[in-house]
DNA sequence: AATAAAGTTTAGGCAAACCTAAAAAATATA
DNA sequence: TATATTTTTTAGGTTTGCCTAAACTTTATT
């Protein structure tokens, strides 16, 4: 499989997850920073190879083998991200571009050994689950804190806003990956929330609750 | 720089080292498993970019900037080889193909951090020196044990024959990377050598001494 | 329902990196 | 030295993945 084919499969997988429906050439091409005509071309090729199902004017959908291929690439991407963050001290924003390159290296042994070296991690530094070697992923509900109800509890797995001011704020409040966040109360007038984190209660603004992801 | 350009530069560097002279398109194309016409084409491109000096029918030579580029790629290759061997338990023969892919990943930070993570190694698992970030290499005399004289001492940095039977033999005799080998005696009739390794004397056949590399 | 707008596909090109076959130059041999 | 052989280059072709522009569908608007 070529580098380009891999990128298309991965993109189709993500967009399919996000929208639920068939992925249009327009959306796909924008996502990949290419022109719609290029997407059409590649989609046709992937269809001939039996990796996607494509009906002209109806968008694409991954089929079984396409999804497994996509998940294998995502596995590689997330293992490399974990490596960069844990072993090479890369910060969140530096990780992506490099992992994007590393995910295309072809060697089964490399990935097996990397997985072992990292201690068989289940989640990457963004909190996303790492598929196993067969392409199985832990089903995970990823929500924003703002989508929780009073009484709910979630584990912090990432953020949406990665500006340094927001990350600094989280640091000050002792909110980090793995923090258990319990929703105490919801204020209707400003949509802020009172939450409990490690026996400490604090109030998070709507902006804050919308930018913190939790696994429930 | 494209992947192909990088591979050509690296090959020209090696062949130039090996033969001392300008590298012919014939030799270069064979080394890269391509046709001479393809080599000519690429050489012309690299010449236009100012990385090599090329005169039709006279072969190619790297110039200053081409050599620095080549050494940067070799640096990446050797750091990755070290990583694969030291951290991921790859054996000598499995290393090369993967490092060949990893060396083309583009990220200065990645290489800096990898170097740090590995403890700034000076030699790769084959005993070859790792260039620094500016493309400077430690000049190193790499010799076969058979080229040494009685009284000489060398440090084992690699082997030529990588068959498992030879590697097993070395293992049994406790000869490994880093072993200090002192030449005690040379037998003229069969060209075998008596050597001392860690206070133990043993006799190595001509075949053996020709297949062990040392740094002196 | 007719038309306008938006999205998609087709057709024809381009650059990179490879190829084959033929022409040209360099080297070896009679 | 003349000819044969080998090496190198040139010319023209192929594939992959991208592009633009034009044609065609689908969807939205009046």
From TrEMBL, chains A, B:
<dbReference type="InterPro" id="IPR050536">
    <property type="entry name" value="DtxR_MntR_Metal-Reg"/>
</dbReference>
<comment type="function">
    <text>In the presence of manganese, represses expression of mntH and mntS. Up-regulates expression of mntP.</text>
</comment>
<dbReference type="InterPro" id="IPR036388">
    <property type="entry name" value="WH-like_DNA-bd_sf"/>
</dbReference>
<comment type="similarity">
    <text>Belongs to the DtxR/MntR family.</text>
</comment>
<dbReference type="GO" id="GO:0046983">
    <property type="term" value="F:protein dimerization activity"/>
</dbReference>
<keyword id="KW-0238">DNA-binding</keyword>
<keyword id="KW-0805">Transcription regulation</keyword>
<keyword id="KW-0804">Transcription</keyword>
<dbReference type="InterPro" id="IPR007167">
    <property type="entry name" value="Fe-transptr_FeoA-like"/>
</dbReference>
<dbReference type="InterPro" id="IPR036421">
    <property type="entry name" value="Fe_dep_repressor_sf"/>
</dbReference>
<dbReference type="Pfam" id="PF04023">
    <property type="entry name" value="FeoA"/>
</dbReference>
<dbReference type="InterPro" id="IPR036390">
    <property type="entry name" value="WH_DNA-bd_sf"/>
</dbReference>
<dbReference type="GO" id="GO:0046914">
    <property type="term" value="F:transition metal ion binding"/>
</dbReference>
<protein>
    <recommendedName>
        <fullName>Transcriptional regulator MntR</fullName>
    </recommendedName>
</protein>
<dbReference type="InterPro" id="IPR022689">
    <property type="entry name" value="Iron_dep_repressor"/>
</dbReference>
<dbReference type="GO" id="GO:0003700">
    <property type="term" value="F:DNA-binding transcription factor activity"/>
</dbReference>
<dbReference type="InterPro" id="IPR022687">
    <property type="entry name" value="HTH_DTXR"/>
</dbReference>
<dbReference type="InterPro" id="IPR038157">
    <property type="entry name" value="FeoA_core_dom"/>
</dbReference>
<dbReference type="InterPro" id="IPR001367">
    <property type="entry name" value="Fe_dep_repressor"/>
</dbReference>
<dbReference type="Pfam" id="PF01325">
    <property type="entry name" value="Fe_dep_repress"/>
</dbReference>
<dbReference type="GO" id="GO:0003677">
    <property type="term" value="F:DNA binding"/>
</dbReference>
<feature type="domain" description="HTH dtxR-type">
    <location>
        <begin position="1"/>
        <end position="63"/>
    </location>
</feature>
<dbReference type="Pfam" id="PF02742">
    <property type="entry name" value="Fe_dep_repr_C"/>
</dbReference>
């Amino acid at each position: 499989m070529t580098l380009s084919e891999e990128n298309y499969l991965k993109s189709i997988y993500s967009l399919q997850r996000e929208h639920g429906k068939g992925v249009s050439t327009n959306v796909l091409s924008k996502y990949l920073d290419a022109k719609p005509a290029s997407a059409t071309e590649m989609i046709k090729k992937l269809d001939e190879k039996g990796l996607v199902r494509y009906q002209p004017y109806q968008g694409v959908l991954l089929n079984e083998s396409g999804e497994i291929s996509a998940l294998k690439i995502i596995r590689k991407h997330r293992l490399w991200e974990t490596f960069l963050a844990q072993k090479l001290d890369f910060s969140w924003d530096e990780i992506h571009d490099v992992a994007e390159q590393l995910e295309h290296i072809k060697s089964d042994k490399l990935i097996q050994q990397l997985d072992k070296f990292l201690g068989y991690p289940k989640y990457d530094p963004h909190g996303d689950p790492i598929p196993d070697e067969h392409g199985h992923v832990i089903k995970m509900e990823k929500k924003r804190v703002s989508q929780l109800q009073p009484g709910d509890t979630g584990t912090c797995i990432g953020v949406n806003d990665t500006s340094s001011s927001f990350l600094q704020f989280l640091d000050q409040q002792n909110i980090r990956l793995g923090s258990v966040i319990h929703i105490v109360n919801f204020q209707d007038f400003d949509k802020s929330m009172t939450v409990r984190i490690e026996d400490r209660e604090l109030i998070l603004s709507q902006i804050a609750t919308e930018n913190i992801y939790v696994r429930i």
